[in-house]
Design a protein that fits this description.
With about 325 residues, the chain is mainly beta. The protein is built from three helices and 27 strands. The radius of gyration is 19 Å and the shape is globular.
Length: about 325
């Protein structure tokens, strides 16, 4: 199967991006640091064949639903759909052999790569024949991911990208020295199965990154929620506006701003990477999405968005890269 895996490249004077037809994965994001040294700042496998299993979803497009759905039960207008169970008793990232592990059709243009895939009705239990299109668009110092989908009946969709960032470009390093800002006043607490259960204010919390701070400051603190995520962050943050996240590494000078029209971002500090041979906490994910598990809260107007034959799915996330000397 490795011979079927193809690498497509977008490149300009600032950035080099590599995309796979398997999982529509981002394999590489390379740029020169403040000392003019090229750095690949996303985690990838050395051998393409490792993307076939890809248990950590490195760089993949996640769907039909990002995150976990409790007991694999999706309720739409009173009808229950039993989804594929692949994480304890729950559905994770769309279930077994979801779009993150399938081959996509690829069209390469001068400044964009267009990835398309069809997901048939009741694939992994989800209703609706879905046509999904992902556009990776490179312009100057920005990589934008545009998500589109159409369905022939009412369904639920919640797509994201699962790239693992390390701004040092060296995955023997942890992310502890990176400086992180998250534009959020609330995050969702999780239970022992990482299912979001309740809204928690970030006031006086080690999870609070409203003011930029080194990630190691979080890891030096104690919190039950940190323990539930295997000593890290694996939590949805409810965003105040489209300016979601800023992260910076002072040694390389690499800075990323994340912009999105999604209402939430799951921050994941690679708390289980050691189980597949990588270093724990050697990367961080910014999984922009709706609140997982169709979480709802009237106070903050958090509601899942359903689509049907008259309403298409359309979202975007933009990564803006800068070098600060």
């Amino acid at each position: 199967m490795e011979n079927n895996i193809k690498v497509y490249t977008l490149e300009n004077n600032f950035l080099k991006i590599e995309i796979l037809n398997l999982g529509a994965c981002i394999k590489k994001i390379e740029l020169k640091d403040k000392n003019n040294i090229p750095r690949n700042i996303v985690l990838g496998y050395d051998n393409l064949e490792e993307y076939i299993e890809n248990p950590a979803y490195l760089g993949a497009i996640i769907g039909r639903t990002a995150g976990r759905i409790k007991n694999g039960i999706l309720n739409i207008d009173g009808k229950e759909y039993n989804l594929s169970i692949n994480n304890s008793t729950n559905t994770l990232h769309g279930g077994k052999n979801s779009i993150s592990h399938r081959f996509w059709n690829i069209e390469k243009l001068s400044n964009k790569i267009i990835c398309t895939i069809k997901s048939p009705n009741l694939e992994n239990g989800y209703p609706g024949n879905i046509d999904i299109k992902i556009e990776y668009i490179l312009s100057e110092n920005e990589l934008e991911i545009k998500y589109y989908a159409d369905t022939d009946r009412k369904t639920y969709l919640n797509l994201t990208n699962h790239s693992y960032f390390n701004l040092s470009g060296d995955y023997t390093n942890t992310i502890y020295e990176d400086i992180l800002l998250i534009n959020s006043d609330y995050f969702l607490g999780i239970n022992e199965n990482s299912i979001p259960t309740n809204l928690i204010s970030l006031d006086n919390s080690i999870f609070n990154f409203r003011a930029p701070k080194k990630i190691k400051d979080f890891f030096s603190g104690d919190d039950e929620q940190k323990d539930l995520a295997n000593n890290g962050i694996d939590h949805p943050y409810i965003l105040n506006n489209k300016n979601a996240v800023i992260i910076k590494n002072e040694n390389t000078g690499i800075k990323i701003s994340v912009e999105t029209d999604n209402p939430a971002v799951v921050i994941y500090t690679a708390n289980y990477l050691n189980e597949i041979g990588f270093k724990k906490h050697s990367a961080i994910c910014f999984e922009t999405q709706e609140a997982p598990n169709l979480f709802q809260d009237k106070k903050l107007y958090i509601n899942p968005t359903f689509i049907d034959e008259n309403n298409s799915y359309q979202k975007y996330t933009k990564f803006i890269f800068k070098i600060e000397k």
